[in-house]
């Protein structure tokens, strides 16, 4: 079948952008969809698609009075999270993908995937989604075009990115000057003539592939989150990190928040934590200390470029939140709750209540009965969880009642502090200030965290997750470290953000969290700002500057002195035990590890007396 044979629905407008049209035609010829639909982004289209998803049994419409214009979806039980072992960086030279990524030669990968794509959209509609990550009116709009055969992906992309005709028109206006990332996605479930569809089509064989030199993404087999919404992790982190390396900026797995002190001083903070380690919660934090205010700019991704004034400015390229549902409630994240309660959201792999609402572990008002994410009867006595630990809400960022007005500024905001952090039960204190950019880069490069349900695999295993980017660095991680070193070297040190390392997850001897976390993390933010202002005290330790117990504002906090001390403790023996692990981690990189990081490690060893 040729592209010309593919039936065009009346709504298909095509494009005057010859090269884009050519690519769409080629994909259609290969994948043989029944129809092609160019996504407009209109409200009518949303209604059409969500109705179609309801008819297919993929979506259940939630009660309008509880969650207007919102939908429940349950995925195939095998398609619930990112698949890191099926994710590839197919650089031309294997060395450029480095020791932390899966690699295959691009030609070989394309040969395999072309066969998988052949006829894979039969019986389905092929959607063409023009989108832009970041602002349409920015100096260099970061366009993408995702082709997908999943209505779920179209609806979710519409929440997560600025999509549709307005973007396509801009691409057409720019013509050959429009730089866009072609991103091809299929669930890999062709339908034979007359064959009924399943609610969640997917394929056991999955590939999530980035071609860094071509700045192209090919994804096959999964309909879920970061595997399928290709503007998110695949483009805004893996491909964008390659662009950032080449162009001298940073594409990072970071939230961005605006902090206003009681004296009305404004600071912007970015923070990198691995998936499901608290970015969304910190980004929307409700401070428990009087006079401090937090507003949100982003909860997952930050693109940071130097401004003319020499400071590092961050923008959030996304348009929605794709947040972890379990644990989210009125206490832990009241702003996320207010955002999703406004509706226009998609909930995946949570529980469906009998009165047409959603529920998950940790949410208030536990229902007496619900349908679990696996479609089974669920009651509080059930042994199985009602919701998958990586169940998600997908909701528009503009509904967030504490969205900072600067979100709309394509220039972004000047960052004063960068926080790195992960989940560690032991060893890592509540907060540590680095001595300088290089030391902060070392902290980031050696970041460690227990694995979570956000990726398929074992949960709770400590692994190194540099800058929380382990699954997202689109090139050799050794070169990525060098890029961070270079950013510091080329900048005016006095204007660079200060780097800190936090750990909300240290445990006491009974296994409870030592630090109450959530809104109380505002106390740590306050200390961070007071360090920047030169006001707060700190103790110098082998690993960096740690608050003295008195320097951290604990007014009104129900925390015993001994607990605070334990949360802040730097135990030399525990840190000595980290050294061989860091050495093993660094050994992976061979000569690609920047000398400066080896020098930092030697410094740490000397201070610990190793
Ligand atoms: N103990 C404790 N748990 C927290 C804290 N902040 C977040 N969490 C929990 O960590 C889990 C993940 O939190 P999120 O804020 O959604 O994580 P995220 O980093 O945005 O996750 P991704 O969307 O996967 O990138 C939730 O279950 C939270 O309840 C904290 O300060 N202390
Ligand atoms: O990418 C996803 O599927 C969800 C997400 O935000 C993450 O895992 O960090």
From TrEMBL:
Residues 22-245 form the Phosphoenolpyruvate carboxykinase GTP-utilising N-terminal domain. The active site is at residue 277. Its EC number is 4.1.1.32. Mn(2+) binds at residues 233, 253, 300. Its cofactor is Mn(2+). It catalyses: oxaloacetate + GTP = phosphoenolpyruvate + GDP + CO2. InterPro entries: PEP_carboxykin_GTP_CS, PEP_carboxykinase_C, PEP_carboxykinase_GTP, PEP_carboxykinase_GTP_C, PEP_carboxykinase_GTP_N, PEP_carboxykinase_N. This is Phosphoenolpyruvate carboxykinase [GTP].
